[in-house]
Amino acid sequence: MSTSSRPLSPHIQIYKPQLTSVLSILHRGTGIFLCLGAIVFAWWVTALALGPEAYAEMRGALGSWLGRLFLFAWTFSFFYHLCNGIRHLFWDAGVGFEIRAAYASGKAVVVASIAMTLVAFGLAYAV
Asked: What span, in angstroms and rounded, lies between the C-alpha atoms of 74 and 47?
């Protein structure tokens, strides 16, 4: 039995990032970020229950540029995870596995997520 210096399976550095793999990683990342956002949401509800002072402090934190950036990223994560989840439901039904369909649906997910995030923030700031 000879030993080879070659790896048994290709390492991640060998692969060129593809849209499908990047979107898969982004789906996992947005899921984790949504969990973080759920903690912030619980903090917001707690502040709401604690009274006007706590709520004003929370509103100030979320109203800062960093808070607004967080809310924007959280909103994008929500819409991306939603749209990509719907894409996965189609895959579960056996639809959209062809390369062209997978890339088209991936691009549609990104465009729809960005559009819905911008619409949500546009409506929020219009009020």
From this structure: 19
Question: What CA–CA distances, in Å, run from 121 to 101, 115, 124?
Answer: 30, 10, 5
Burial of 55 (0-12, 13-18, 19+ CB in 10 A): middle
Residue 9 is encoded by which pair of tokens? Answer: 């399976």
Q: What is the model's pTM?
A: 0.86
pLDDT tens sequence for the chain (127 residues): 556 676 666 666 777 889 999 999 999 999 999 999 999 999 999 999 999 999 999 999 999 999 999 999 999 999 999 999 999 999 999 999 999 999 999 999 999 999 999 999 999 999 8
62, 126, 127 from 123: Cα distances, Å? 17, 5, 7
Q: How far apart are CA 69 and CA 63, in angstroms?
A: 9
Which class is 19-126 in CATH? mainly alpha
